[in-house]
């Protein structure tokens, strides 16, 4: 029987590549998104992957959403916490809204989503929880105190949850991508990318979403059961902890 995978923010960017790669690997996949219906409908038409709209920053919306996905596809065995946003500005100008939106979407979502599925995974003695952090959670980034704090939190969340569930067939891992060619990074002006970002990347280019997706498929596999609590850095050699 095909395992069921849910990818949050699975309709665009890195998440879309993850959804497609999991489908190609034989999973029954659900992709969630926040509000870009046009992108979600296009993704669904192109891939045949089921899409669901809810806000991962809301615990109650996550409870409802997970219930719907499980009613349609069956119990979620692979959860990919990928949804994320940026609200960049220098800390001394940062508003409470910019802080809370980023913390709730990038870190709060790991509680909101994982809490819905963990009891079922524990009862079934199998689960894969894979979250997408960032290089900027490892090293910090100018203008991203909110994002760096949230993404560093994703790593701590992973390490602690991995310990609690290691005996029960559930692995918990986190991927820390460097700069990946998605709309999030395309929002950075091209000349800034070329002058300031790409020269910092030893491989001398942005990463592609598929290069993150293949690592998710690797960590999700049934025979990846000895990998837990780990942070997988995928950044073209830019930074190592
Ligand atoms: P995109 O902006 O391209 O896509 C983000 C996806 O997340 C969309 O599907 C979006 O839905 C969804 N999303 C955003 N907010 C919410 C929310 N509140 N509830 C539900 N879904 C939401 O992002 P990327 O693909 O670039 O990034 C994916 C992940 O990778 C993020 O966690 C990001 O922080 C991380 N990352 C990205 C890097 C990069 O270089 N791109 C580098 C390191 C980490 P909708 O389409 O409806 O807006």
Core attributes:
241 residues; alpha/beta; Rossmann fold; 7-stranded parallel beta sheet; binds NADPH dihydro-nicotinamide-adenine-dinucleotide phosphate; SDR
Short description:
This is Beta-ketoacyl-ACP reductase. With 241 residues, the chain is an alpha/beta fold.
Q: How would you describe what is shown here?
A:
GO terms for molecular function: acetoacetyl-CoA reductase activity. The protein has 9 helices and 7 strands; from the N terminus they run βαβαβαβαβααβαααβ. It starts with a strand and ends in a 7-residue tail after the last strand. Helix 3 runs parallel beside helix 4. It is of the alpha/beta class. It has helices at 13-24, 37-47, 59-73, 96-124, 135-139, 145-165, 183-186, 190-197, 209-220, and strands spanning 4-7, 28-33, 50-53, 78-81, 127-132, 170-177, 231-234. The protein is 49% helix and 15% strand. It has a single domain (4-233), classed as 3-Layer(aba) Sandwich (Rossmann fold), CATH 3.40.50.720. Strands 3-2-1-4-5-6-7 form a 7-stranded parallel beta sheet, sandwiched between helices. The structure holds NADPH dihydro-nicotinamide-adenine-dinucleotide phosphate. Residues 8-9, 11-15, 32-36, 39, 55-57, 82-85, 105, 132, 134, 177, 179-180, 182-185 line the site of NADPH dihydro-nicotinamide-adenine-dinucleotide phosphate. NADPH dihydro-nicotinamide-adenine-dinucleotide phosphate is lined by residues 8-9, 11-15, 32-36, 39, 55-57, 82-85, 105, 132, 134, 177, 179-180, 182-185.
């Amino acid at each position: 029987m095909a395992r069921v995978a849910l990818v949050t923010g699975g309709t665009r960017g890195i998440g879309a590549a993850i959804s497609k790669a999991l489908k190609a690997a034989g999973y029954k996949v659900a992709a969630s998104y926040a509000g870009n219906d046009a992108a979600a409908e296009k993704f669904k038409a192109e891939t045949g992957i089921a899409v669901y709209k809810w806000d991962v920053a809301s615990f109650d919306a996550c409870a409802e959403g997970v219930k719907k996905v499980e009613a349609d596809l069956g119990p979620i065995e692979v959860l990919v916490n990928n949804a994320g946003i940026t609200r960049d500005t220098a800390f001394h100008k940062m508003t409470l809204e910019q802080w809370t939106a980023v913390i709730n979407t990038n870190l709060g979502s790991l509680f909101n989503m994982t809490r819905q599925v963990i009891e079922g995974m524990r009862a079934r003695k199998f689960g894969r929880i894979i979250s997408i952090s960032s290089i900027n959670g490892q090293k910090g980034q100018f203008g991203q105190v909110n994002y760096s704090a949230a993404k560093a939190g994703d790593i701590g969340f992973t390490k602690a949850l991995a310990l609690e569930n290691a005996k029960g067939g559930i692995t918990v891992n986190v991927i820390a991508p460097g700069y990946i060619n998605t709309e999030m990074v395309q929002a950075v002006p091209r000349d800034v990318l070329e002058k300031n970002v790409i020269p910092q990347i030893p491989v001398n280019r942005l990463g592609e979403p598929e290069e993150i997706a293949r690592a998710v498929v690797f960590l999700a596999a049934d025979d990846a059961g000895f990998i837990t609590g780990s942070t997988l850095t995928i950044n073209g050699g830019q930074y190592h902890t």
